[in-house]
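To the wet lab folks,

You asked to see what we're planning to order before we commit. Fair enough. Below is the target structure as tokens, and below that is the sequence we designed to fit it. If anything looks off to you, flag it before the synthesis order goes out.
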């Protein structure tokens, strides 16, 4: 790591801390030549393999953007979307792979989105899973209903 003050190619770490989300490390460094102190942030790289074959860095903002469309008109906040995007990133990082296919990201979105808002989940799933017929929607709705009945009465929405 080059010193940003004198361009010396060496520096020493004087303090390391994990970030709030636990996905990066903040390091406080000092240049042995000029004594200047500076901070660096290190993250493990995570790349996305798009359908076209193009590889690009994972972006929480892209996850939020895609899900935001499904959530239009729903009671979902930007903070909710940020939490969902963080959960998706943590999920795909747990695979241990440094490259992940867009299809796997879509699968990682479905679970948290389903818990966040079932209507947004159906909207996202209908595009992501390419629903072609009313039966595709009916099947997804039947699955949601079956999960509600299997989980007991405490999992339904509304005042209780």
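Sequence we intend to order:
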């Amino acid at each position: 790591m080059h010193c940003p003050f004198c361009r010396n190619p060496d520096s020493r770490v004087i303090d390391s801390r994990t970030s709030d989300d636990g996905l990066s490390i903040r390091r406080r460094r000092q240049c042995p030549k000029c004594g200047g102190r500076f901070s660096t942030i290190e993250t493990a790289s995570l790349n996305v393999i798009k359908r076209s074959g193009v590889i690009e860095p994972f972006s929480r903002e892209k996850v939020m953007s895609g899900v935001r469309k499904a959530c239009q008109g729903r009671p979902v906040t930007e903070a909710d979307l940020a939490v969902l995007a963080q959960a998706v990133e943590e999920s795909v990082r747990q695979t241990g792979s440094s490259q992940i296919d867009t299809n796997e990201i879509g699968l990682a979105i479905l679970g948290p989105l389903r818990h966040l808002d079932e209507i947004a989940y159906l909207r996202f799933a209908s595009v992501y899973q390419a629903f072609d017929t009313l039966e595709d929607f009916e099947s997804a709705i039947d699955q949601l209903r079956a999960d509600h009945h299997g989980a007991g009465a405490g999992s339904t929405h509304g005042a209780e």
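Structural context that might help your review: The beta strands are 12-18, 24-30, 37-43, 47-49, 55-57, 99-101. Residues 47-153 form one domain.

Thanks,
Computational group
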